[in-house]
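To: structure desk
From: M.T.
Subject: fold request, one chain
Message: Could you run this one when you get a chance? Sequence is below, nothing fancy, just the single chain.
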Amino acid sequence: MPAATIGPELQRLIDLLAKMPGLGPRSAKRAALYLLKKRDPVMRPLAFALDDAANKVKACSVCGNWDSIDPCAVCADTDRDSSVLCVVQDVGDLWALERAGAHKGRYHVLGGLLSPLDGIGPDDLNLGALIARAKDGLISEIILALPATVDGQTTAHYLTEHLESSGVSITRLSQGVPVGGELDYLDEGTLAAAMKSRRAF
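Reply: Done. Structure tokens follow.
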């Protein structure tokens, strides 16, 4: 479709939708047309939800989860085991583990993985806060629920070295998580099995 046939407002919508993961230019056009056809049941409520989320949702100051309250609902839950801390790459991984019901402790979201090739070092991640939490005397076990990728293993080794002096037991997910696998794409049964079969790192 020539650019001249699309008005600037619609083109801006398409361009913004195309920035979403999994949406290319053609998918973004289809999504934009769908939204326009469904203005009242979908588009306007979506616009309100986006504005509401942009103004109210923030990163938890304790674990890094996204929520409209701080500390987040997971950190504020007194029924969780505060002595076990599960370290994940991103919030999507936290949600995947919660969906699977595989972890009843606390979390810590790194916000990414160490990747020297991409210029991502320790200062770019939420590592300092994790090391501080490990040394506060309340944590007995840290589960490294990181992807079985090169960057995931690099991050896990870095954390193991820096957490060794804390005296905290460090474990990792075991069977069921394939090499190169991302937690957010695994089914609940696989995640639950991996959590139960965790082993010392």
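Reply (cont.): The chain has a mean pLDDT of 90. Let me know if you need anything else for the meeting.
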